[in-house]
Write the structure tokens for this entry.
Amino acid sequence: MSRHRRLIPFSALLLACLSAGHAIAAEKPLWELGVGMSALSLPDYRGSDETSLYAIPFPYLVYRGTFLKADRHGIRGTFFDSDRIELSVSVGASLPVNSDDNRARQGMPDLQPTVELGPSLDLNLWRTHDRRYRLDLRLPVRTAVTVKEGVDDIGWVFSPRLNLDIIDVAGLAGWNLGLLAGPMVGSQRNHDYFYSVAPQYATADRPAFDAKGGYAGSQFLMSVSKRYPKYWLGAFARWDSLKGAVFADSPLVKREDYFAAGVGIAWILGESATRVEAIE
């Protein structure tokens, strides 16, 4: 079952998946601004067997400051005198679900849109001299809150992951490939929000379920992108596995393995006249 929706921007979700950049040191604008549009195919929630299509606008922002940077690696600050260790801001999001439109959740409260925000310690494990290949270990911990009808704390998520970036992949100038994989862990409150079934919402086909905190499955993501002079293109494909997750037996989990995908285009509308040396 597919549905088409037009939504307010959920740029955190898109920018966590799509990346762009170059590997060599060069004089580049201090900042770049633009606007983009994406098309995403995503499950209603992790474990749902129903998929929705989204058209989502997003901002394109690059900032190459001395102590603060915002680019394909996210928002990060220079708090250590090392180019091997970075402390960055990790963001994530989930989209709203109208329970009347989802068979597994009919009669239950709607899922509100959520935003996840927290620090990430990023460690560079290996890279080539020209930085065309780079392997990082990222350790993000994020607090999740609902952002509609009040801000409610729904726990935390931890998703350690290995990230491999390849610049000019397969000899194609300007085309960049990102590969990311790792497990996910969530608190009891976070899993309760998405996967618990309170006794008053139990039915013959949907028994009551009390979700626990712990292992939440794994994610594997591949992204490709290219920066042109006036615009940027990107696409991603993500595979999720919920096998072994502490909530895998929830009646709301209808599919343990699934794919999600998206494409995006952004137009660069302006840039700084000030140039800085950058390696991206």
User: Anything to note?
Assistant: Residues 2-278 form a domain with the Outer membrane phospholipase (ompla); Chain C fold (CATH 2.40.230). The chain has one domain: 2-278. Helices lie at 11-15, 188-195.
